[in-house]
Amino acid sequence: MAECYRRIMAMAMKVFKIILRQGPSRSRGPHLANHQLLMKTPAARNFVTVPSRTPPKRKAGILLTAGVVGSLLYMGDVDRAAKYHAESYAIMKDLVPPGIQMAEMCRLLGGMTEELGKYAAALSYYRTAMKNAKLVTPISRRCFVGVDILDRIAECYSHLGKFEDAERTFNKAIKVYEKYQGHASLSQPGRDNDRRNQALMEIKVMHVYLHYAQTLNLMDRSSEVSLIRQRLVQLLQGSPMLRGEETHVLDQFDDILTRQRQLLGGGNKGSDKSV
């Protein structure tokens, strides 16, 4: 185990020295905002949350790995960030216990791989993340993480043209959310963490509905988009946090799908899955 962490530390320091020599990238690419948001997600934050009882060498390896990945993403170098994180993951995967930390490591790696357009490879990481997400507690966090990962799996299927698999996975994500809603309605008033996780879940479900509607457009089933929109309306009206954003969210939803249909009508079918 000590040898594994020596390898991680050596690799991290090597990459950091390269970063310092090169300095900030002048051209960070068109998707830098997505990369920076990626590091602000619960996945990224939990990746660098190390339990206090973690052995010092292991803690140093985890934090240094996260620091290198964050620095590379800030520079817009997603390719190198993904490569480094994949190498670190290969070393650490047998040392990190199953559960939230492994789920978030794989979720972050899947996100970077997806950003690079390597959807089949991203699916592999997301599936591993999903297996570990089933071990997450409390249930509110487990459901939020599950909805998040299922949305990304469905998007990868859609990019690969596997629309039926995508639709089935979107529906799984929605069912996870609905099941949690049923659980929450029968439970005592939730703790702050439960309320936070539910709020995050509601935001993620908005994304699920949008991505689902985009996939329906790609399947020449635009007539069914109105049904998805109605479910989005119900979500917005039923959420104390989102209720005031209903008009803005629906305007954005309609605008994105209108632009997608215009592109599809111009012969670019399957190309507008950038949101």
Automatic annotation (TrEMBL):
A Pfam entry, by short name: TPR_8
Superkingdom of source: Eukaryota
Annotated InterPro entries: TPR-like_helical_dom_sf, TPR_rpt
TPR repeat start and end residues: 147-180
Gene3D superfamilies, A to Z: Tetratricopeptide repeat domain
Keywords linked to the UniProt accession: TPR repeat
Family matches, as PROSITE patterns: TPR
Name recorded for this polypeptide: MalT-like TPR region domain-containing protein
Originating organism: Phytophthora kernoviae 00238/432
